[in-house]
Amino acid sequence: MPAVLATTDVWAGRRRRVAQLRTRHGYARQLLDFYGALLDVQETSFRRAAEDSPPRSQIASFAADVVAPSVIDVSVAAGPERMRSELIDHLGEHAARDMIEAWMRGDEQPPVERFLARAALGPVLEALPEARAACGGPRDDLHCPDCGGPPQLSYLGPAPEDLATGRRQLLCARCGGSWGFTRMRCAGCGEETSAKLPIFSEMGTTSGERGSVVRGLARPAPSADAVFPHARIDACETCHRYLLSFDLDVDRDSVPVVDEIGALPLDLYARDRGFTKITTNLMGF
Predict the structure, then answer these.
(1) I want to staple 172 with a disulfide (CB 3.0 to 4.6 A). Which of 16, 149, 179, 195 is the partner?
(2) The predicted structure's pLDDT at residue 6
(3) C-alpha Rg value of the chain to the nearest Å
(4) Which of these, 17, 30, 14, lies nearest to 264 by C-alpha position?
(5) Number of neighbours of residue 222 by Cβ within 10 angstroms
(6) Per-residue pLDDT tens over the stretch 139-175
(7) Domain residue limits, the chain
(8) What is the CATH number of domain 151-277?
(9) CA quadruple 81, 83, 88, 92: dihedral sign
(10) What are φ and ψ of residue 104, in 5° steps?
């Protein structure tokens, strides 16, 4: 099945989840609305990349010339005020292609440059899996096997045939691909000692897991049991990093890349305890 047809439901699912969460999480409405506006640009860019199929050597140029101008337009029109001003300032000093190439190499970047690079390159790499090899980075179990990018979040899906990794998947921050990963292991440094891997969740931990209950979150209704029943913080006391994990069996409507934007209180909870996210999401959180 052609890539464009195979992923139609992906873009529709992301839009549907944005609409659900923006009414549920008022604190994240501006970010979700901005992400929703970006989805239109990214889907159009995805389709254009699938149709034009630029060669691997031209991926950065394609993203810079075809995608970045629309990302900039929607960011200036709908993005947070600070992002708008910083984006305009950085574009006066650096070309979009330079920012995209730096992200492809895995260089350290100012948040606004990383945002533009990710927003422009992401849909291109989603549309063209064969182009992911143009990106730099290690191809080990802590990085995406396709593009070498870092993990952004993890999710628990239906049990795969590979029982060695179980249900846990890591989602790549660069290309959107996923790969299997051991459940009780740090996705940042590879630590496997359970005593050093605390878990924070509103629902508490299960047998054999160490952690605590996230408290103090505003309930959407007095009768609600949890704000994020399907989400948890997977942290590591060895590297002091964390990522968010989403259980798709608990909330079948969940779209992890969207839910992560709405789960800002969990990010703040983890950071208040001295942990740094392995990789921020597209919105910088």
Answers:
(1) 149
(2) 44
(3) 19
(4) 30
(5) 5
(6) 999 999 999 999 999 999 865 554 444 589 999 999 9
(7) 3-134, 151-277
(8) 3.90.1670.10
(9) positive
(10) -65, -30
Residue 97 is classified by DSSP as H
Q: Which two tokens stand for residue 76?
A: 């200036």
Model confidence pLDDT, tens digit, residues 73-95: 999 999 988 888 888 888 877 89
Neighbours of 196 (CB within 10 A): 15
CA distance 54 to 45: 12
What is the average pLDDT across 2-27? 83
What confidence score (pLDDT) does residue 122 get? 98
The pair of three-digit structure tokens given for residue 32, joined into one six-digit string: 């979700």
Q: What is the mean pLDDT of residues 230-245?
A: 97
Local structure of 203: helix, strand or coil? coil
Reported in sequence order, the residue ranges of 138-254 that DSSP labels E, i.e. its strands, are 151-156, 168-172, 178-180, 199-201, 211-213, 231-235, 241-247
pLDDT of residue 213: 58
273: left (phi over 0), alpha (psi -120 to 50) or beta: alpha
pTM (2 d.p.): 0.89
Compute the half-sphere exposure of residue 246: CA atoms within 13 Å on the CB side of its CA.
21
